[in-house]
Amino acid sequence: MDGTEIEVTDLRTGATHPHALAENPRRPRGARRILQGQSRRAFLTLCTALLVFLLLARAGASPDLLGLLFHRPSPLPVARLGIGADTLYFAHGVPWGRLSLDGRTLGDADYSVLHTDLDPPYISLRLTRGPHTLEYRAAPFPVLRCDLSLPASPADTCPLLRPGKDADVTQLPPAQRILDLGATPGRLSPALLASLRAAVGDTLARTSSATTAAAGERILSPDGRVSVAPRPLTATLLFAPGSGTRVSALDANGRLITLPCLGLCASRALLASDDPHAWTLYAQVRPHWWYTDQADARRAYDAPAATPPIAPDGLLRLAVTWDGAGWQVAAPAVAPANPTCDTGISILAHQLPAYLLGNVQQAGNMRLSVLSGPVAAAGCLLSLSDRRANLVASSREALFLYHFGVLFAVAGFATQITDDLPVAAGAVADLALHLAALQI
Question: Domain-by-domain residue ranges, the chain?
Fold first, then answer.
């Protein structure tokens, strides 16, 4: 471009202006050549890179390789979630409670149900990544507001339930995080708890069932010794508040366990419970019998439900609601519990040899199951069977019947376990075999 001059003329005004490429008398010619050479090299480099990119993309190169070649910043690694880490389970809820997540009230469509052998089934919620705010309202319990995140963070404030943390009567599901919604008797104010206990006491006073103890049947006398009914007696099963001792019971797998429930305990039932309209509450009760001579009502006496020192305490399942002003307590309309089954379990645990008791406690090959009589006063059938047996009635099964405070050996190897148990006969044996047939 030596000796070349370029002018630009404005057609509207006729004025001329030197072009940017016009030779600058103050710039040396060598410097201009260097700049022009750099521009050409930059242009050629850009064209070459574009051509390489198009060829690689056409050949199917991975985005990571293209990003590496052209210095694209790598995305930050995302932590992998463990199995079930995004699933949140809920415990200690009531049917009338309302749960909100990030300001949105959740409904039935938002939950999933864990189908296991646990009773009742556990309800869960799938979380998305990131921080969340949760709120649970269930009057008259305190409002729960807390933060939780996925993955879990040290800054999370939501209370989580762990085995052994609270007195309870149901098992925990196999889950990483179980949110404690806080609907338990222990979270109530002293005044509300006192009114709840009073309502439960009124219900216990009205809860009873009765049947006939035939003349000659074994029953317990007032001092707890086994005696014989001299005449037909009306046997009425009554309940008093429990003594605060631990209760023997069964878990969902037929394993003999000791429950920590002392007094009133909330089931770990969740947003739904045994009763879809009521809060499932368990009251520790002490069964006892009131016997009345059918020929002379003036002949009546009270007898314990087990021979001392065995504590006859059991758990009575109750359906509880809150009407905004007070508690309403009733026995559940469906599948009411029979606390005498727990009493029978406690007696049997004292009679089993150590090796057999340990097998049942550790969920070995022996399984213990119970079946209530047609009414609670009729007693409870206890069946100790080998999990490996296919036949219900076999040498691998032992049948027992708790009846009027006495545990009877009925069939199978029950008579071989101990000589201290009376053998069922007559009407008692007929009742036991009838219940055994229902259990098949």
Answer: 7-69, 87-183, 190-337, 342-439
